User: Fold these one by one.
Assistant:
Number 1:
Amino acid sequence: MKKLFALISALTVILALCACAGNARENDLSKYDGAWTNGADILILSSEKQSYILDRRGRVGSGSFYLTNGKAGIYFNSSIYTLSLGDDGLSLTQSGQSYVTERIGASVFVPTDASETPVFTFEDMAGEWENEYGERLEIDPEDGSFVFASQQGVTEGTAGDEKQGRGPFFAAEGRYMYVIMSADLSGFSLRCGEEDEKVIRGHFTRK
């Protein structure tokens, strides 16, 4: 009888260890590390930094990458996207805030050899910028504001980065503009609207 109890106890310990190992593998963010693409966007995940970088056709943003309810997820545009790995690649499933207009599509991401996308932070944009039309943009990250001067007049508004994957933005008169950095990070253009449907004229470089 004692041998039977000892055997049962040993089996219980083994099963518990196997369950813990399974949970550890399930909760291991590092298995998602690296660069992924769905053919249009590039998603770079880092378990060490618990953050991600998302490059959407030149608009680069960053956000949080973490465990939520025991599942890996990222926070993008006021929504949580849970991550799952399958035979075909990495899938992202949106939960909550279904009314938002910009989403990460349901397409599957596959590994890519893309090198880490450099991130031009909002703080890096402090100072004065000018485009080829002589229009000037002055940015104050500490105050979270900007001033845009052109022949049509002066526009003031708010600016910042919500760290929700969409990158730095400028907002005025109910309109949002997002930053599209040049490949060498020497300047930028602006896109208007959450779906990037319109590019504001001009390329801004430091004045």
Note: Confidence is low (pLDDT under 50) at residues 1-26.
Number 2:
Amino acid sequence: MKSRSFFLTLLFGNLLILISCSSNNKNNSVEKNVLGNKIDTAKKQDKSVSPSDSCKYYLRLSQELDSVLLKSTQFDEKLAIKANNTFVKCAFECHHDSISALYLLKAAQLSQSLNKLELSEKYLTKILSDYPNTPFKPAAKFLLAQYYADVKLLNKPSKAKELFNQIIKEYPKSIWAENAAAALQWVGKSDEEILKELKKKK
């Protein structure tokens, strides 16, 4: 995927179910071609999907897209856009299901990679407001806080500090609280400033 800022890579690491990983390029190409055919067919059938089946329909497409993304070794903008739209549709159609929050989270990550930070903020905020009991809430809150904290992204340091402190208070013995506490010292600082301070501590 497109490179994330040093700040995000440093603090978020592998805490989320990230939407990129490594695998075999040949298998990946075959899967993308097969998936492309499935989605083209699905588009033609889209209007015929009944409301009662729409959640299962978009969930299946989302799972297939997610599988391809997880095996991708390079960023594919067209695939990312297609997946992002499908994830959002899945979240909308399955809004009564707990899986909705997961696909909003994935859509938020993809939106950031596509430089659509306003959409990423919108999806993460929706998770926090509409799914207060989802197990993905701390992940959504932490990711949103990082976007606010990064000067190259949303750059809203006061909101970042507020969210990080909420995480520490709400999940005191979790890895989220531990990382939020570490993240507070970097809020509002550029990658260069972070690197300089890290070098001083060595």
Note: The chain has one domain: 6-201.
Number 3:
Amino acid sequence: MARLAVFILLCFCAMFAAAAFGVLHNQISFTIGASYFYDVKFAQFDIDPVLQNRIGAGVVGAMASWWMGLLMGLPAFALGLFTQAGRRRYFHAGLNAIWVATSITGIGAFVGLSFGYIADINTLVGYLPMIDAFSDPIGFVRAAIMHEASYFGGIIGALAALYVMWRERPKQGNDNATTK
């Protein structure tokens, strides 16, 4: 029963970490391409016009990413439910998995942001279906690339979280494994 409680707690920790990541991520992407929010995201998430600023970008970030924490964490936490020796070890391994997954997702965002600045952005802007619909096409594309790269980083982060949980399991013959 205690291990199930740890599983649920880890799921909430992962959702919180993902929401916090989304808020921070969107503060950066709002700086780079506010039109990504003004032209698409504020309407998509039905953000009140009074909040269509950095606060709204943070709200969009939390709403758009909390579920990714759950999606990324569930496989690792389920694995840990069966491989970790005790609830304390399980909780610690789960927090490590969240940290690793969030860090790799952040690296993905940074790679996307870097690509948005070094790529031939004018060519990429040409691929937008209705270029006149965006107030700042270059900023829009840079922010969109950063967001997409974050999701790709999240996939890699989820796999890394699985590895962390597997690596943290007690080895056979280890006298330090506890069942608390």
Note: The chain is about 80% helix and 0% strand.
Number 4:
Amino acid sequence: MRCVVCLALALTFALAGCHHRHASEQPAPMPPVVPTPLVTPKAAPGAAIIYVVNPKAVGNDDSLMARTVTLGHTDSPVRGAVNALLADKNTPVPAGTSLRGLTIEGSLATLDFSRSPVNESGGEGGQGDALTALGRTLGQFPEIEKFQIRVKGKLVKEFGEFTTDGPMDVTRPEKKP
């Protein structure tokens, strides 16, 4: 196939050189250049990035790692991503926690869980990992800037060692140069 393409290109260049243009002929004008807007690439449809415990993290290494998951059929990519985080075998969220509801008003996402998404007895590191994983997972969605957590409909501001004054900021993924 590559030989056919090379042969076709060679013939095209050879024939183009054989055409004589009279001095009075002018080349056709180039069409005007119309600038196109720069489009930022998006994640593949049906996929999301979740942040789970990195079993190889030691010492000061980041204890979370990114994992790309396929969402399948879902009415909301945000809901699909959070559910994928909850279902992952390396989730920092306690087993048995489910997402009861999700609302997005403006740039605020409210997540309503069946139980606290933070393991209250998991120590400061484990508690922080759960909140960080949620903030990073939500951070891939540009429409979300902050999030808050409800448990069975009740707004929660205390998570073991951590207390929030209001909605928490999401963490945007780092852009590579």
Note: The first strand starts at residue 47 and ends at 53.
